[in-house]
């Protein structure tokens, strides 16, 4: 998907997904908005259980404020989708002439 959309297009799609799941008034994803929107927007057969929702919120809420902001959502999507990580690494490497693709994380920033 990242190859097809490019890095900017892919990030735009992530942002659209975030906006579809968020509470309009608060600008963040809450337990209520996730539960309400998960069936319609995520294509699930049935409503997510409270345990599943709490688990997702805990995993995504990096700052501990009880909600998932846009940055936390993007981080969560990358963490939950190894293919996204591989794709983003390939985009980063191609933009840097392949110099960041060694096994050392320090080389990602050179």
Automatic annotation (TrEMBL):
The keyword Lipid biosynthesis does not apply. Keywords: Calcium. This is EF-hand domain-containing protein. The lineage of its organism: Eukaryota, Viridiplantae, Streptophyta, Embryophyta, Tracheophyta. Residues 48-83 form the EF-hand domain. The keyword Calcium applies. Pfam families: EF-hand_8. GO terms for molecular function: calcium ion binding.
């Amino acid at each position: 998907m990242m190859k097809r959309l490019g890095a900017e297009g892919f990030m735009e799609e992530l942002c659209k997904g975030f906006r579809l799941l968020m509470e309009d008034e608060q600008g963040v994803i809450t337990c209520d908005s996730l539960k309400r929107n998960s069936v319609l927007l995520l294509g699930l057969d049935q409503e997510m259980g409270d345990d599943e929702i709490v688990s997702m919120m805990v995993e995504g809420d990096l700052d501990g404020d009880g909600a998932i902001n846009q940055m936390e959502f993007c981080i969560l999507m990358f963490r939950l989708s190894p293919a996204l990580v591989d794709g983003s690494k390939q985009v980063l490497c191609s933009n840097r002439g392949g110099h960041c693709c060694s096994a050392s994380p320090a080389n990602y920033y050179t």
